[in-house]
Backbone:
């Protein structure tokens, strides 16, 4: 059995950020990674995907973007290279190709079992991410025979789909991007739309992420929200990262021929059943967008900033005159369904009583309900930006200080 003070599970951005802080504290640790560094970016993303955050916002501890395209958006190969180079530069002690099979309490702290042997650690940091498994509704099994059913983790490009109609379920960042790409390939797309967050890519001459960063939206902390569980379940933003800084929303998708419906509620034989609340869902998304734009306008005025771009508001989301409520799969020519219905973490290997019946980890700002157990990289862990590359550094700094106190036998101050 090998021993370290700390075992970090996962060598993506969260694990690497924690590794740097532990190294600076001279805390002996190891990162156990089932594949290579940035494994999820390597193996579970579609070909055309780019980051939704501008290059300047890819900030990790001790690193800031210095390239010639700060307002561009990294491709997946560029993201993998970025994280791999960072791991080498900080000399992260990564054990690649090491799959964690079980973590349980022990007299020394924790015992971590892998397919290559066991590790003993006084503390464990879970940095395996929030997107280990695709969340697919239970009624997906009711799809009629002959209909392909895939998730975004399996999707790579339209050429791998049949030359027929495609139903994309979910209209957050993933759903709208895949609907656009598949429609452009010549395959007719129906987009089943649930709750979503509509935003323009740029506003008043700046990227929307620049404004969110500047006015403090991304730094919003736990004490500033009333219902943290609700906030952690807010869908991802309807954004796409392209060289043209393209805005993508239901209006742009409908303009290119995508059919927009309400949320997919169930499947009865060959009949798809959709919610009739499309208008209400879209009205709420428009309202939230305009609230953010108003906050930006108010911030500009409050700070006396001059800008050549005047405030504006965007056309409300167009709702079809008679949104579909029912649709026969065969009549619509649908041969493929893409479930862009979100993701969830996988804690099946965690043999510590800290996982709820809903599969959620019991934690307070990354402090898991078991001494010496920590988690990084989850949505709104400590701040709104916690699950972004730009957000894991602050969380890792706070949690590493708590972890050091734990190892020293001190009574840690709440991180």
Residues:
């Amino acid at each position: 059995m090998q021993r370290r003070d700390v075992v970090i599970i996962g060598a993506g951005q969260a694990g690497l950020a924690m590794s740097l802080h532990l190294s600076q504290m001279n805390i002996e640790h190891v990162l156990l990674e089932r594949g290579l560094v940035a494994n999820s970016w390597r193996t579970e993303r579609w070909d055309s995907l780019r980051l939704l955050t501008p290059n300047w916002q890819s900030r990790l501890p001790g690193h800031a973007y210095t390239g010639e395209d700060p307002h561009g958006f990294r491709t997946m190969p560029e993201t993998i290279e970025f994280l791999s180079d960072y791991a080498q530069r900080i000399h992260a002690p990564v054990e690649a190709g090491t799959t964690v099979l079980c973590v349980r309490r022990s007299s020394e702290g924790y015992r971590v079992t892998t397919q290559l042997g066991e590790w003993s650690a006084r503390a464990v940091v879970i940095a395996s991410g929030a997107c280990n498994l695709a969340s697919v509704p239970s009624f997906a099994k009711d799809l009629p025979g002959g209909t392909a059913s895939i998730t975004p983790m399996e999707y790579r490009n339209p050429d791998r789909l049949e030359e027929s109609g495609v139903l994309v379920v979910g209209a957050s960042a993933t759903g709208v991007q895949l609907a656009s790409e598949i429609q452009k390939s010549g395959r007719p797309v129906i987009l089943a739309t649930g709750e979503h967050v509509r935003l323009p890519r740029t506003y008043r001459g700046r990227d929307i992420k620049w404004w969110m960063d500047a006015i403090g939206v991304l730094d919003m902390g736990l004490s500033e929200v009333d219902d943290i569980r609700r906030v952690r379940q807010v869908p991802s933003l309807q954004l796409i990262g392209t060289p043209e800084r393209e805005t993508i929303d239901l209006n742009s998708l409908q303009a290119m021929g995508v059919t927009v419906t309400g949320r997919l509620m169930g499947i009865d034989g060959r009949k798809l059943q959709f919610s009739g609340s499309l208008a209400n869902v879209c009205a709420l998304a428009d309202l939230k967008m305009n609230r953010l734009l108003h906050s930006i306008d108010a911030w500009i005025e409050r700070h006396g900033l001059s800008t050549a771009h005047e405030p504006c508001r965007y056309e409300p989301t167009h709702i079809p005159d008679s949104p579909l409520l029912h649709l026969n799969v065969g009549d619509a020519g649908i041969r493929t369904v893409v479930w862009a219905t979100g993701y969830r973490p996988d804690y099946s290997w965690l043999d510590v009583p800290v996982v709820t019946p809903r599969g959620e980890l019991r934690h307070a700002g990354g402090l898991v309900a078991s001494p010496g157990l920590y988690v990084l990289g989850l949505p709104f862990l400590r701040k709104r930006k916690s699950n972004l590359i730009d957000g894991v550094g602050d969380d890792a700094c706070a949690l590493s200080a708590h972890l050091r106190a734990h190892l020293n036998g001190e009574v840690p101050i709440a991180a």
